């Protein structure tokens, strides 16, 4: 068993969140999974953890692209402004039901994003993410 990894799932879809929770619970590695409804909630969570010097910084972020209030691209614009010493080790994965090439291309413009994952999330994807951390 490895050290527990912290996962932040940023998605407004309740079905996706349920599937993600179940898959991480079933995986061989231990994960602490937290959820944010949209990019704004997620960025506020990260900022609060950094400012207060407490709370858990995620090892992995699964980031939906299409969300209300602040989408995944808005989140990334804010994320890259956070102190690098606090975010360098965070592996971001965009997760989307979109197969649009523009989204895949835009993902490649952010070095913090390690991969573009097309929904649905599967156990194989979780295992690949876990192996990369």
What descriptive keywords fit this protein?
5 strands; 22% strand; five-stranded parallel β-sheet; alpha/beta; 133 residues
Describe the overall structure:
The chain has 133 residues and is of the alpha/beta class. Strands 2-1-3-4-5 form a 5-stranded parallel beta sheet. Strand 4, helix 5 and strand 5 form a beta-alpha-beta unit. The longest helix is centred in the middle third of the chain and has 14 residues. It is globular, with a radius of gyration of 14 Å. The mean pLDDT is 90.
Write the topology of this structure.
Blueprint: E1 5-10, H1 14-26, E2 31-36, H2 39-52, E3 60-64, H3 72-79, H4 84-87, E4 91-96, H5 101-107, E5 113-118, H6 123-132
Parallel strand pairs: 1-2, 1-3, 3-4, 4-5
Helix pairs in contact: 2-3
- How would you spell out the order of helices and strands? EHEHEHHEHEH
Structural class: alpha/beta
Mean pLDDT: 90
Kindly report how far apart the N and C termini lie: 14 Å
Major sheet details:
5 strands, parallel
Spatial ordering of strands, largest sheet = 2-1-3-4-5
**Percent helix among the residues?**
40-55%
Number of helices: 6
Structure summary, number of beta strands: 5
Shape summary: globular
Give the amount of beta strand, in percent.
Answer: 15-25%
Low-confidence stretches: none
Please give the radius of gyration in angstroms.
14 Å
What can be said about this structure in brief?
By secondary structure, the chain is of the alpha/beta class. The protein has six helices and five strands; from the N terminus they run βαβαβααβαβα.
């Amino acid at each position: 068993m490895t050290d527990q990894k912290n996962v932040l799932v940023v998605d407004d879809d309740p079905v996706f969140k349920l599937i993600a929770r179940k898959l991480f619970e079933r995986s061989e590695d231990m994960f602490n999974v937290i959820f944010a409804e949209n990019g704004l909630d997620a960025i506020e969570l990260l900022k609060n953890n950094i400012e207060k010097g407490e709370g858990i910084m995620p090892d992995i972020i699964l980031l939906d692209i299409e969300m209300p209030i602040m989408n995944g691209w808005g989140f990334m614009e804010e994320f890259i402004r956070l102190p690098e010493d606090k975010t360098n080790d965070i592996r971001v994965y965009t997760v989307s039901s979109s197969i649009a090439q523009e989204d895949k291309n835009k993902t490649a413009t952010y070095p913090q994003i390690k991969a573009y994952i097309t929904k649905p999330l599967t156990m194989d994807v979780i295992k690949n993410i876990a192996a990369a951390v």
